[in-house]
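Margin note: ligand = zinc ion.
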Amino acid sequence: MNTTTARTITANDRVYRVPQEPTVVFTVDGGDPDYFDDALDRAIMPRLAGMLAAGGEYRLGASEMPSLTNPNNLSIVTGVSPALHGVPGNYCRLEDGTLELLNDPKFLRAPSIHAVLAAHDVPTLMVTTKEKLRRLLGHGGVPSISVEEAAGTGLPAYGVEDLQDLVGVEAPGIYDWDASHYAMRLGLAIYRHHRDLRLLYVSLTDRVQHATAPGEELSDRFLVAFDTLLGEYLDEGFTVGITADHGMNAKHAPDGTPTVHYLTDVLQDAGVEVHDVVLPITDPYVRHHGALGSFAWLYLPESARARARAVLAALPGVEEVWDRGDAATIYEHPVDRIGDLAVTAAAHVALGARERDHDLSGLHAALRSHGGRHEQPVPLITSRPVSGPLAARYRAGVLRSRDLHDLVLNHLPNHPPAPNE
Ligand SMILES: [Zn+2]
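Resulting structure:
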């Protein structure tokens, strides 16, 4: 075993204790607090309830804006804002005008906590459900695997020839309800094969949350299976942190019709020149959301901006319109990867570009999505009570999901504090 003698590492100016016991952080994709609150109320997650009764804590915190998968997974694993890690959306327009899915490590401007630990020979592992996240999260020499590519793939770093053989169950498809649970199974299987593992990050998919509200049958099935696997991690002695990359809200009328403002159409109808409407929720998994969320960037001539702001402000459900400089400050965004204007919408309102360009025929169900302020609150759950300098802010509900590794590595009992405290 080649473990480090370092007791702490520094990643992006934050100090973390090197975990001496197995530690896992789960990011439940689209894991809105409403799902957990409802499940705990109805007692369908006994292992989570038991963990909380035994001293674990469940508070709320904030995810990054826009409340989307890539910016938040990156903030959770780097401990810093999109301004520093460089990924403000799943998709964006670069300074040269090209439109890019931000799935390539070349876009990253900060290392993950895991990459710094790996550089100190601490065994770490990234498990994602979606392959699009694997390369981003695995950047910097972190062993990384995804459910989407598990079949026929090995993990040489830990002597695994075939991931599917190791789990002993065939990997589900990316749109199957239990794809997330397979990510949890992969993490467990690798730990049982390689017990030196110290920090695991397991990132799920929001396929179920896009399709079903708390209390619906599929949502319950998802949470019950999550709870059973959480119990297996606890039984193995893991220290556990749980958060979400973003929440989830219905974005449709009672009859199921999506409630959407198509901003290119709206501005053109009002005679306002617009070059581009960029929807940062855009990703390869369009059946989840049809590229409709509650956040948009607009690119338009300077002379058109005042008129555009007036037209947007008059739309029911448009809540914030910021110019680039203000948006970079307020949302902590990299100024070179965002639009001239940033727009957010209400809980039940989505923003699109041109109506004719959004194909909603493949949606799993009536539109549920995210991206705005109303999907910013997320759970921050720990398996033991939080103590030390972050405790007051944690209990006040004002921490960010990017603080979760700090909480879990530095602020749970029976751990010596990091030396900068
Ligand atoms: Zn997500």
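Residues 416-421 have pLDDT under 50 and may be disordered.
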